[in-house]
Amino acid sequence: MSKTLTLDDVETLAHRRLVRAGASSEAASSVARSTRRAERDGLRSHGLLYVPIYAEHLECGKVATDAVPAVTTPRPAAICVDAGNGFAHPAIDAGWAALTDASRTCGVAALSIKNSYNCGILGHHAERLAEDGLIGLCFTHAPASIAPTGGKRPVIGTNPLALAVPDGEGGARLVLDQSASAIAKSEILLRSREGRSIEPGWALDADGKPTTDADAALEGSMVPAGGQKGFGVGLMVEIFAAALTGANLSTEASPFSGPKGGPPGTGQFFLAVDPSAFAGDGFAASMDRLIASIEEQEGARLPGQRRMDNRRRIEAAGVIVDDDLLARIEGEDA
Amino acid sequence: MSKTLTLDDVETLAHRRLVRAGASSEAASSVARSTRRAERDGLRSHGLLYVPIYAEHLECGKVATDAVPAVTTPRPAAICVDAGNGFAHPAIDAGWAALTDASRTCGVAALSIKNSYNCGILGHHAERLAEDGLIGLCFTHAPASIAPTGGKRPVIGTNPLALAVPDGEGGARLVLDQSASAIAKSEILLRSREGRSIEPGWALDADGKPTTDADAALEGSMVPAGGQKGFGVGLMVEIFAAALTGANLSTEASPFSGPKGGPPGTGQFFLAVDPSAFAGDGFAASMDRLIASIEEQEGARLPGQRRMDNRRRIEAAGVIVDDDLLARIEGEDA
């Protein structure tokens, strides 16, 4: 059995559950908005499915209920937020106005967040910069799951990067959002639960050898997309999101799932660039020609198109949610 | 037959040839330094081998002999250089002090270059930022050779990115330098000249189908490393290095080889970040732990290690250069 919810329902449901687990109303609002956006784009693993995990992490202390983000601006274009082991989203919100103001004033600016947590769908943060008329290049990291080329112990996480480009009308012209791994870790977890094998090229076992056994993969490491070059991109993300922010490294962060290990203490690094500072009005025209060169080819699609298709569909039709999940979120409220 | 040259000899030889082809002494100095660095690191395709191409491009007008880079600073952290269809290297030099000063003052700053040319080994520019105590993230693009996923016509070049991290002692702790393609285009050109087939996964033919025929590959497109995600990284580079700088797009740039098509008009975008603005002294300690987590694994190597090994060897032993190449460079001077 299932129900169809509006996106407003989704946001309200998430907010209520987070507050009940101890979050401040303000922090819960930041996170609930991200739950809404994930469901809107059909990214269900970071939608309502994640709300019970957020609640568990508030209740076990992995996310501090009393965190107050502390914003400093050590240089005119360097905005730093200590998330205080609370949620990432309110810490990002706390630094947002300073980041966008500084990037317009200086041409380019960056926001670094430490003592933070999983920031959900990275592309949504980049897209929000595009909505503010800026190019957003966003990095975040995660507990280590990818080994260096030739090695066998994970040193970086699936470390995504996201890039969004403004359309000049309050939206994004393009949103790129991709992790460093060949496949999402959630797919390997799913195959493990179902007792199914995984595809070649997805993972290595604990000895650094290729494996198609999902359990052996979970004991080993994920393969980066593009081999050594994919590892290089994930390492770049690690350097910005972890080393530069002063966060825990991916090898030092506690898991993003389960109640153990205390706060993960991960980080985010968001770069915002005002295109008018560099190219005047020419940037939009160049982007039009670049995007046309892709879209005019039969069979070629811009990155991020599936999310946009989902968005149009789900904004009209709503979100279908299993009664089981609703019961898990609403608990005694239900 | 061959001769062994010192790195000083290499630089002098390149400088003399470039001036003879019409470059100003100052522009020739910038380019000759890059030739020296390429040979020092064993990157021969961008060392003396490239000098006859530079000379040809000066002589045919693909590189303007009278270019004077024009530097503007539209915002405190946005430095823009119009290379005037001259070499990239003097244009980069012209904006360098403004970039490094602004990144220290503002915490982060960026240099954009348009109406430019092949900037040689991208990692050397990133490394130079690291030598100045800054994190350097550098993007440049190239005539289109990679098709979008699902398409068949190239829209982006091999579009490399380079990242260098300072060691706090006037050098780099780490230099990452990688193109978006699965294999260097020069390797496909070499196989074509030798009549050999190429490996599966390197290229597509003009219909967008996988091919192992080197000539069909040159009529078609290069495969990105990491499929759709590799294309995404190359597209990110295109957006910064071409669309944002106001350069020609990769689809619009003339080839980096041969005398035809006029100036390529490509671009570069270099981001410089002062780590002390974000992490104080903590960045170096985090980098130490991150690098140790890779180096302590048997079989794992940091990106860029082969160049460093070459550098130690070649600085001591010099550069072995074929007499044929020397004659091509020295021409009537020889």
Q: In total, how many beta strands of chain A? A: 12
- CATH topology descriptor of the largest domain in chain A: Ribosomal Protein S8, Chain: A, domain 1
Largest interface: A-B, 78 and 78 residues
Low-confidence stretches of chain A: none
Structural category of chain A: alpha+beta
CATH superfamily of the largest domain in chain A, by name, is: Malate/L-lactate/L-sulpholactate dehydrogenase, NADPH binding domain
What's the gyration radius of chain A in Å?
20 Å
Number of helices of chain A: 12
Strand share of the residues of chain A? 15-25%
Describe the structure.
2 copies of one chain form a homodimer. In chain A, 57% of the residues are buried. Chain A has helices at 7-20, 25-40, 51-60, 88-106, 122-131, 185-193, 214-219, 227-243, 275-279, 282-295, 305-317, 323-330, and strands at 2-5, 70-75, 78-82, 108-116, 135-140, 161-166, 172-178, 203-204, 210-211, 221-222, 266-273, 319-322. By secondary structure, chain A is α+β, with helices and mostly antiparallel strands. The radius of gyration of chain A is 20 Å and the shape is globular. Chain A has 2 domains: 1-60 and 304-334, Hypothetical Oxidoreductase Yiak, Chain: A, domain 1, CATH 1.10.1530; 71-181 and 224-303, 2-Layer Sandwich (Ribosomal Protein S8, Chain: A, domain 1). In chain A, helix 1 (7-20) runs parallel beside helix 3 (51-60). In chain A, the strands form 3 sheets. A 7-stranded mixed sheet of chain A has the order 2-3-4-11-5-6-7, sandwiched between helices. In chain A, strands 9-8-10 form a 3-stranded antiparallel sheet. Chain A contains 12 helices and 12 strands. Chains A and B meet through strand 4, strand 6, strand 7, helix 8 and helix 9 of A and strand 4, strand 6, strand 7, helix 8 and helix 9 of B.
